[in-house]
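(Fold this chain)
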Amino acid sequence: MDSITHLAIGAVIGEAFAGNKLGKKALLWGALAQSVPDIDFIAGLWTNTSEGLLAHRGFTHSFLFAAIITPLLALAAEKWHRPHNIPLKKWVPFFGAQILIHLLLDGMNVYGAGWFEPFNHARISYNWIFVADPFFSIWAGCSAIALLLLRRKSRWRPVWIRIGLGMSLIYLLYCGLNKLKIDREVKNALANQSIPYTDYFSTPTPLNNWLWYVVAATDSGYQVGYRSVFDKTGSIRFHYIPKNDPLLQSQKEHTDVQLLMRFAKGYYAIEKRQDTLVFNDLRFGQQIGWRNPAAPFVFYYYLQHPDANKMLVQRGRFAGWDRTAFTSLINRIKGE
């Protein structure tokens, strides 16, 4: 999830844990605890772009890191607040829960998280929710602001805790149901349309959980399409994207390419733009692809010009967005 959402959820959990004992300091401790795994951003100070992709949400998003950092944070908090009536044995589950919730949430979108680092490099991503979904974030965000502004003894504080955590959980469960529905319909569509495939994935399009981006891998490329939870037709309009693996043969042994292939989990396509080969990671979607099935991909890496790859994941995410693009998203969400 995005950093602001982590901060808000952590703050509300902090209030639920110790708001009556620590006052508004509990909000701060909660926000801090929920944000700790994202200290991996400092890896960008000494890694190049391709290495940084795997460093982000790597070891600091693992169960081993959680086991190491939880008692350290608990000891620091227990010592900082002496004298108090919150024993160490209560600080430990608080910080442990915060870290694990962070890991769980980051496993819900396409970037994934390295839960089993350093023993296994697999990135866990079950693609329930887009990395920034306002319909998820709004509940915790409003609750955190309300808790920050309300008086310490206000009778509304418990109400806002229930709203922030309860509605967020309900929305996540709703996203899970949408995921199950979309995956079932995608499998049926592929079978009914006689499309052979070796694997597939589905993930929400930006800022919502109703329109889903679908990629089915074949032997030579990918079938890319979109499916709304409100679609009435059983078919999906797929657009074929060639993998173009032969273009990569001269580059495959390069370290950057090896890291990119590992990061993409096999879902990549190569294209040539003028004087350079471009590595597209299909998992992050297309730039307004629901309107233009041949749209460029959000994540693209210039293989011959590595210095041109700053802000790699973010640079194409909202490229081309304007009022018309947003309207087309709403219309496609409504279904076909």
Q: What stands out?
A: The chain has two domains: 3-174, 236-333. The CA atoms of residues 182 and 229 lie 7 Å apart. The longest strand covers residues 276-286. Residues 236-333 form one domain.
